[in-house]
């Protein structure tokens, strides 16, 4: 099964979100910035990307610019998770930080059901 890619520079948030998603039966890949996320995309194709915007090395805006330019991956759904209110991203979904875990799970499950993918159970 293809993973969910969680991109955030906050290690605690990465651990919590990864743990919650894995408990739901999803496989998770993590990256601490946009550059690491691009590296993951070179070796794995996630079904969904959860993306923070404010990160060191390569922020979410820079990642999105390069991501959208790559025809091989730009169709992967992206959910921006940010404390900043984002209004100029019409093609991505937005979740406000701090994340509401039940809302996050609802959105993730919606994406997986829409793509006819069922998470594996433990």
Provide tags for this entry:
4 helices, 17% strand, 122 residues, alpha/beta, five-stranded parallel beta sheet, Rossmann fold, 5 strands, globular
Question: Which homologous superfamily in CATH is the superfamily?
Answer: Response regulator
CATH architectural designation: 3-Layer(aba) Sandwich
Q: Which stretches are poorly predicted, pLDDT < 50 over at least 5 residues?
A: none
Q: Distance N terminus to C terminus?
A: 13 Å
Strand content of the residues, in percent? 15-25%
Give the overall shape, derived from the CA principal axes. Answer: globular
Structural domain tally: 1
Structure classification: alpha/beta
Secondary-structure topology with pairs:
Layout: E1 4-7, H1 11-23, E2 28-31, H2 34-43, E3 48-51, H3 60-69, E4 78-82, E5 93-96, H4 101-114
Parallel strand pairs: 1-2, 1-3, 3-4, 4-5
Note down, in words, how this protein is organized.
- The chain has one domain: Rossmann fold (3-Layer(aba) Sandwich), CATH 3.40.50.2300.
- Helix content is 39%, strand content 17%.
- The chain has helices at residues 11-23, 34-43, 60-69, 101-114; strands at 4-7, 28-31, 48-51, 78-82, 93-96.
- α1 links the parallel β1 (4-7) and β2.
- α2 (34-43) runs parallel beside α3 (60-69).
Summarize the structure.
The chain is of the alpha/beta class and about 120 residues long. It has 4 helices and 5 strands; from the N terminus they run E-H-E-H-E-H-E-E-H.
């Amino acid at each position: 099964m293809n993973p969910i890619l969680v991109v955030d520079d906050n290690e605690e948030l990465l651990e919590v979100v990864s743990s919650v998603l894995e408990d739901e039966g999803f496989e998770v890949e993590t990256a601490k910035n946009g550059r690491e996320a691009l590296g993951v995309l070179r070796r794995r194709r996630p079904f969904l990307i959860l993306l923070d915007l404010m990160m060191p090395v390569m922020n979410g805006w820079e990642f999105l610019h390069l991501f959208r330019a790559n025809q091989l991956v730009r169709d992967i759904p992206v959910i921006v998770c940010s404390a900043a209110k984002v209004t100029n991203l019409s093609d991505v979904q937005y979740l406000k930080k701090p994340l509401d875990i039940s809302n996050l799970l609802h959105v993730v499950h919606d994406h997986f059901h829409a793509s006819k993918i069922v998470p594996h159970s433990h």
